[in-house]
Fold:
Amino acid sequence: MHASTRPLRRSARVEYTLPREDTSARWARRLTAGFLNGTRTPPEVALYMDEATLVVSELVTNATRHGHSRCRLRLSTAPHTLTIEVHDDSRGHPVLRAVDPDGENGRGIALVSHLTRRLDVTDHPRGGKTVRAVLSTTGAG
Structure:
């Protein structure tokens, strides 16, 4: 048996600025995977890689599709949670729609809402908003 030399951390935080481009969601997924597998994060958050990268992809896609400039992605861990925040300059809030079984769009926020413990939007006085999704990192991943 080999003891881990990885220092035990209870929290970590990172922030990225992404361009308003179609490729930003892909980069956001890669950056999220790197953060969750990194040495600064609690090891248990890596168990939630699939959920986290899906949430990040949906929120960054919305920000780049509906915003007018770059967006910011902030990832942070705390005991038993992973928080994903995406800030963009659009005033429009994501809308939870009834899912059309034949529709090709409109499922993202419903999916994010289902995967997260909490989903909220904060408006900023100088414009724009931050969409915050909190995932629970307790229980089965």
Summary: The chain has a mean pLDDT of 87. The helical segments are 24-36, 49-66, 108-115. The radius of gyration is 16 Å.
